[in-house]
Amino acid sequence: MKAIRVDYSPNINGVVQIPGSKNSSLALLAAACLSDETITFKGIPNIADFRVICEMGEEVGLTIKRDLTGDVSIDPRSISSTDFDSEKSSSFRTAYYFVGALLAKYGKVSVGYPGGDNFVSRPIDQHIKALEMMGAKFTYHKDYYEVEAKELHGATIYFDTITSGATINAMLAAVRAKGKTVLLNAARDPEVIDTAIFLKTIGANISGAGTDTIRIIGVNQLTGGTHRVIPDRLIAGSFLIAAGVAGGSVTVTDVIPEHLGSCIAKLEEIGLEIDVRDNSVTASSTGKLFASRIRTGMYPSFATDLQQPMTTLFTQASGKSIVAEKIYPNRFQHVGQLRKMGADIRVRSGVAFVKGKSNLIGTTVSASDIRAGISLILAGMVAEGTTYITGVEHIERGYEDAVNAFQSVGVQITKEDINYKFNNPFYGNAQKGC
Ligand SMILES: CC(=O)N[C@H]1[C@@H](OP(=O)(O)OP(=O)(O)OC[C@H]2O[C@@H](n3ccc(=O)[nH]c3=O)[C@H](O)[C@@H]2O)O[C@H](CO)[C@@H](O)[C@@H]1O
Ligand SMILES: C=C(OP(=O)(O)O)C(=O)O
């Protein structure tokens, strides 16, 4: 079994170059299929989700190639089928974007049910509602669903809840649909804007992305083009939080600081010194960490994907902190693992009450999802002794090389095969039973 090993690493220091955003990349890879020519993307991270999309795409004739410079080219002209393998398409979250992107052109798409990080409930009713209002018909099977539309038409769609996924999916479907689509109560996330900017580059008629009303007028043809993916604000935020947990100073470069607004403001409140430049942000500890509260929300509110690393930071702040998780009220799988390391956290009805400062102790813990994994790496940096984190495959869905990135700021971290350690009495620190 692979595990990430983290040894006590106080006072981290260094610079991390932030890669392209996973969440934008997942939307863009599907959006490219709307084109009638070849698309080139710069900055798509080589994460597990990308690799599975390449495999899934290859099976239906969708050619996705990465060249030696890291650029990814996609040629949608060779698509010969729109029946995606259900197992592969269920191994990540966003296979549903291929429905939105391919439906107008091909009239029928089948994919597996969405996978990705499991927060108990992640409905897709707003995706279904939007596509049905545009004329799509869903048929549900045990492991996959089929979506058909003789002709997709524009519609005025009001989202009952703000959702980045359904906003992007409806936008993809509307680009080649007949007539005008208006999306009301749309998500304003940077990834929505990035997808819209790319689509406009290749000829889509979209206005209003970044506001809560997006208008799309369907077009018949889209050209090729080149687009650079926006930087991953969630990786950047996690490294800034890391400086608070371990102490020291971390600079994240190649970022769009505006995307980190709520995170930066919170870190300042908690006691970190933040220096914002044109395309970099530095977080430095001041030796003080104040207890605080966060309430997650859709952009520009505090991102749910930074809630888990922030919870680790609160374990190191003296006093009582409160974490209200409003997007995924069950996104607290990391809490049990942090408690195993000595954290004092209670969860009630979607709210975590964190009492700090706790002296954490290294042990074997398990990452249930990407950000839970990151929160455990951060905890391992200040825990006494050694922490082993299993569930590495979850972390690798979102990070190309988390170990290398954390090493670059001085964290003592490696990826190891831990089976032999469990069976070897000389490795007393590696405990079983995660
Ligand atoms: C690949 C990707 O981009 N993943 C991100 C995306 O997920 P994802 O796109 O799945 O999340 P959404 O923005 O859609 O979800 C926001 C909220 O809307 C709810 N909802 C969503 C769709 C729907 O049909 N019905 C519904 O009720 C969700 O349960 C959640 O409470 O945004 C989440 C919220 O910022 C992030 O945690 C994920 O990292
Ligand atoms: C929840 C996440 O990812 P996904 O939506 O891909 O499962 C995440 O990136 O934290």
Automatic annotation (TrEMBL):
Residues 10-403 form the Enolpyruvate transferase domain. It comes from the Bacteria. It catalyses: phosphoenolpyruvate + UDP-N-acetyl-alpha-D-glucosamine = UDP-N-acetyl-3-O-(1-carboxyvinyl)-alpha-D-glucosamine + phosphate. Its main location: cytoplasm. InterPro entries: Enolpyruvate_Tfrase_dom (IPR001986), Enolpyruvate_Tfrase_sf (IPR036968), MurA_subfamily (IPR050068), RNA3'P_cycl/enolpyr_Trfase_a/b (IPR013792), UDP_GlcNAc_COvinyl_MurA (IPR005750). Its EC number is 2.5.1.7. It is an enzyme of class 2 (transferase). GO terms for molecular function: UDP-N-acetylglucosamine 1-carboxyvinyltransferase activity. Keywords: Cell cycle, Cell division, Cell shape, Cell wall biogenesis/degradation, Cytoplasm, Peptidoglycan synthesis, Pyruvate, Transferase. The keyword Cell wall biogenesis/degradation applies. Pathway: Cell wall biogenesis; peptidoglycan biosynthesis. The active site is at 117 (proton donor). Pfam families: EPSP_synthase (PF00275). One of its GO terms (biological process) is cell division. Phosphoenolpyruvate binds at residues 22-23. GO terms for cellular component: cytoplasm. UDP-N-acetyl-alpha-D-glucosamine binds at residues 93, 122-126, 305, 327. The keyword Cell division applies. Cell wall formation. Adds enolpyruvyl to UDP-N-acetylglucosamine. Belongs to the EPSP synthase family. MurA subfamily. PANTHER family: UDP-N-ACETYLGLUCOSAMINE 1-CARBOXYVINYLTRANSFERASE (PTHR43783), UDP-N-ACETYLGLUCOSAMINE 1-CARBOXYVINYLTRANSFERASE 2 (PTHR43783:SF2). This is UDP-N-acetylglucosamine 1-carboxyvinyltransferase. It comes from Sporosarcina thermotolerans.
